[in-house]
Amino acid sequence: MRKEELKQAIQEEKQKRGVTVLAHTYQEPDVIDIADVTGDSFALAQAVQSLSAETVLLCGVRFMAETVKMLSPEKRVLISHKSATCPMAEQIAPQRVAVFKKEHPDYAVCAYINTTAALKAECDVCVTSSSAVKILSRMPEKNILFIPDRNLGGFVKSKLPEKNIVLWDGFCPVHQQVTPADLLPLKETYPGARIAMHPECPKEALALADMVGSTSAIMEYCLQETGDVIIVTERGVADYLNREYPNRRFIQAAPEKLICADMKKTTLQGVYDALTGAGSCEIDLPEPLRLRARKPIDRMLEYGG
Ligand code: 13P
Ligand code: SF4
Prior knowledge:
The chain is an alpha/beta fold. It has three domains: 3-85 and 263-284, Rossmann fold (3-Layer(aba) Sandwich); 88-172 and 288-302, Rossmann fold, CATH 3.40.50.10800; 175-252, Rossmann fold. Helix content is 42%, strand content 16%. It has helices at 3-17, 29-34, 41-48, 62-71, 94-103, 117-120, 132-138, 150-159, 180-189, 203-206, 215-224, 235-244, 268-276, 287-302; strands at residues 19-24, 37-39, 55-59, 76-79, 108-112, 125-127, 143-147, 164-167, 194-197, 211-212, 229-232, 250-252, 281-282. The protein has a five-stranded mixed β-sheet with strand order 2-1-3-4-13, with helices on both faces. Helix 3 (41-48) packs parallel to helix 4 (62-71) and helix 4 crosses helix 14 (287-302). The site of iron/sulfur cluster has 14 residues, from loops.
């Protein structure tokens, strides 16, 4: 099938089967085109709670689909590409966190939302990249182990010197590659441009940012600014903004590095196959695991996340 025919067929299957399609902003423009809801990982999970559809299909990576299922267990949650996982979310075996907690009973463990359900189940609180500083500042515990991202954790630590934050040595293999050498020439070429960066980038790069925030925070910032913005996160964000706002200029930093191969596994054919049952992967979280993994998310919400 040609691309436009495939898009039409997807729309028909969605309607026939009553499926709502969610796409993370990192998805390719063609996938964004056939989505009903787009946004960052936690925003998508929250959006599903008020949808009437009994089945949702997530275009993104597995931890995102798991988070949807955690918040909406009554829905059937499908992921469009079975093997699309976030390498950072899988960097720690849950048992290692259980061992840390046993050895350090005076520490709370904070999980970035980019973690598997099995890992969240071992943690005390969850955070997103936009809520992390606020949530940790509101926690009564002084001693906190932050998993898995040392860059986001380091950024939060720099903002909260009153806390004793210990960092796990994990990282996002995509954002971790950004260096000041990727940014300095862009600053020279576009002297008036602001730099908006995801906190999964290393601290040497973060030092050059005018704004540090999550996918949605970067997009909001870009829309508030009137001038050019250099975007330092996965390419999907600048692709999206440049398409939606053709009269503005959003400059992609390190375009050859900032591509998440797992996020880009989703294809129109994969979405069609998932909808028609040919390649679908239903997220199945045993209820005891779902309940344990949901607790840190509820705690995040209690703290205003
Ligand atoms: P958001 O939570 O900002 O959507 O980010 C997800 C992600 O994978 C960042 O690399
Ligand atoms: Fe995971 Fe990084 Fe890809 Fe985001 S960009 S899904 S953190 S590997």
